[in-house]
Specification:
By secondary structure, the chain is α+β, with helices and mostly antiparallel strands. It contains 10 helices and 30 strands. About 15% of the residues lie in helices and about 30% in strands. Strand 1 and strand 2 form a beta hairpin.
């Protein structure tokens, strides 16, 4: 086996073996499309300056750029364990041109690279301590990514013959910079590094180019998913802890691609300016108001640390103002991911309700139906399900529960066959997914029907920055069927009682403009998300895209309440330190006023009916 730092003459001979007839530039290897024209060929004498090094190889860049905006001047060299140069070295490389697909996943684009990990392929050192090529500037009078389109609608960008158009399409823009040094003078954080150390940023020059709001998010629209976003990755050095609204200056790294995104692999420490964004909070619920919330508590298990329960309780009391009714999603069983057949969640909910009481909140009861083991999806062994919390002093629940496979129905008078039950649990749409939980509650003599949902995730969808354009949304079909099943139940309910107070709420895992949610609107419900300013329509931030996945749909009877108020309480999604990855929803309306007869029945148990009668007689005699 040859040494890696070869003598120039020996290296030159090796470079001749099986190589192309002339030494190619990096720009020629990269070419003007997503795949190199030299894929599978061995090339030699590729000259470049090393700009960054990782555990399995290094990035290098042409000494003299070719001036072609369609071709990248940077390239990754894969060495595996065969040695690596240092930053600033000028090297000659011999290797096979590969199009490496990260993770082998068909949904990922490829990275054009030189593979020197086998045979006689190697790199040779020419000199050390060279100045690095100037970084391409994004913003600050430099280049800017397109803000309207990610990619052309051509099918597969790798096989369609598509030629890069970086001035039109953001995916082509970043592809034309693959492997190069890139800098951003000033960038706004639009996605916190809550997981994996990644930060989503947008050049300050483009922060208002698409839908945003005063908190600094980049909200998606039906025809725009913020193509100009860029992910800053910690693959080469750690990233700072930041929230939405913070700013980063002097961001410098090498452009790479992994996990379905172009990423700036940070090589230099950026300057951080904190925007000091605060979680939103509402005032405590007034006595004359009824508040109903929805909250995805992100895999809350009965064996979680007490701090987790205290944090969620703190948000229920402090950020949501202690609603009288809360629909919870992602409540796990008592031992969480431990897969031993346990499905009960009484400890999970007992600990949460006790934590709320300890935080000075309401005395909640809860409504839950345990699923069959490993039938509702989510983390294996966790058996996530939906549940309700209700204030026992204000909200009445009769207590009749159905079983895991028992469907709840509608009676001719508009009441339900069970006080709480699952909606169409035998429907194939809910296989390996959460079953909707419907319950009827009485508040001051008025009946409210809530349907708590957690639809199938978007995990089956192709990525925005993937080879197939436009991406297929393979998960849509399941959610459409799930929404239809809920809509059928609501339709039966409203047919029996057109004045029914119905709320369909929860984590519906799709956008307010998605076709998958159309059956709920067709059933006669209004999505309250649509009543908010467009920039405020988000409950979740994914890769810097602020989006509404959680919703509340209400019937006409609730819309008739003139004091209806609805909000998404932004307390989680924008922050690196998250209690949950979802923001909660909050609806408030005027508290129902009981009819006199109902009020008398309510108060009789307190021994005050006689006092009420005496006050009424005194009032009449005084007229």
């Amino acid at each position: 086996m040859f040494p890696f730092r070869l003598k120039p003459l020996v290296g030159a001979c090796l470079l001749c073996v099986g190589a192309s007839s002339h030494a190619l530039t990096i720009g020629e290897i990269q070419g003007e499309s997503h795949l190199s024209a030299y894929q599978g060929q061995t090339v030699g004498g590729v000259d470049g300056i090393v700009t960054a090094v990782d555990a399995r190889g290094f990035w290098m860049q042409d000494v003299i750029p070719d001036g072609n905006a369609l071709t990248s001047d940077g390239l990754y060299v894969f060495t595996n364990s065969r040695g690596r140069p240092t930053v600033g070295d000028r090297v000659l490389v011999s290797g096979r041109v590969d199009e490496y697909r990260p993770g082998g996943a068909a949904n990922n684009l490829t990275i054009t690279e030189l593979n020197t990990s086998f045979g006689a392929h190697a790199w040779t050192l020419q000199s050390r301590g060279n100045a690095l090529p100037a970084a391409i500037q994004i913003g600050n009078a430099g280049v800017l990514a397109p803000t309207t389109s990610i990619a052309p609608d051509v099918g597969n960008v790798e096989t369609s013959g598509h030629r890069l158009a970086p001035s039109l399409y953001a995916m082509d823009f970043y592809e034309s910079l693959e492997g190069m040094r890139v800098s951003m003078a000033s960038a706004a954080v639009v996605g916190p590094n809550a997981k994996f150390g990644e930060i989503a940023v947008i050049s300050h020059d483009q922060l208002g180019a698409t839908l945003s709001n005063a908190r600094g998010v980049a909200t998606v629209q039906s025809d725009n998913f913020n193509p100009h976003r860029l992910i800053v990755d910690d693959a080469l050095r750690s990233t700072p802890i930041v929230n939405v609204g913070d700013s980063l200056a002097n961001l410098t790294g090498v452009m790479h691609y992994s996990f379905s995104n172009y990423k700036l692999n940070l090589t230099d420490a950026p300057i951080v300016t904190h925007g000091n964004l605060l979680p939103e909070a509402v005032a405590p619920v007034a006595p004359n108001r009824l508040a109903i919330a929805s909250y995805n508590v992100e895999n809350l298990a009965g064996n979680a640390a007490q701090t987790r329960f205290d944090s969620i309780a703190g948000q229920i009391v402090g950020n949501l103002g202690s609603p009288q009714l809360i629909a919870l999603q992602e409540v796990q069983d008592n031992n969480g991911a431990t897969d031993n057949g346990t499905t009960a969640a009484d400890q999970s909910l007992d600990r949460l309700t006790q934590a709320v009481r300890d935080a000075g909140g309401r005395d909640y009861g809860y409504v839950v139906i345990d699923p069959l083991d490993k039938t509702d999806g989510g983390q294996p062994g966790g058996n996530i399900r939906n549940a309700f919390l209700y204030d026992k002093s204000v909200v009445s629940f009769a207590g009749g529960l159905g079983g895991a496979t028992e469907a709840i129905g509608v009676l001719p008078d508009g009441t339900l066959t069970l006080d709480a039950g699952r909606v169409d649990p035998g429907n194939a749409a809910f296989v390996d997914s959460r079953k909707p939980l419907a319950a009827q509650f009485r508040i001051n003599g008025e009946n409210f029907v809530l349907v708590n949902n957690h639809f199938s995730s978007k995990g089956g969808d192709e990525p925005l920055f993937g080879p197939d354009q436009l991406p297929e949304r393979g998960s849509d079909a399941a959610r459409l069927e799930q929404a239809q099943a809920v809509a059928d139940f609501v339709g039966d309910l409203l047919a029996a009682d057109a004045g029914a107070r119905v709320i369909v709420l929860g984590d519906l895992n799709d956008f307010q403009f998605a076709d998958t949610l159309a059956p709920l609107s067709a059933a006669g419900l209004l999505n309250l998300t649509d009543t908010l300013p467009e920039g405020e329509r988000y409950t979740y931030i994914y890769e810097g895209n602020a989006q509404a996945l959680d919703h509340m749909f209400v019937s006409a009877a609730l819309l008739a309440n003139a004091s209806l108020s609805y909000d998404i309480v932004h307390a989680n999604a924008e922050f690196a330190n998250q209690i949950s990855d979802h923001d909660p929803l909050l609806l408030t309306i005027a508290m129902p006023v009981p009819e006199p007869e109902t009020y008398a029945l309510m108060m009789s148990g307190l021994g005050v009916v006689g006092a009420i009668g005496r006050r009424r007689r005194r009032a009449l005699s005084a007229r």
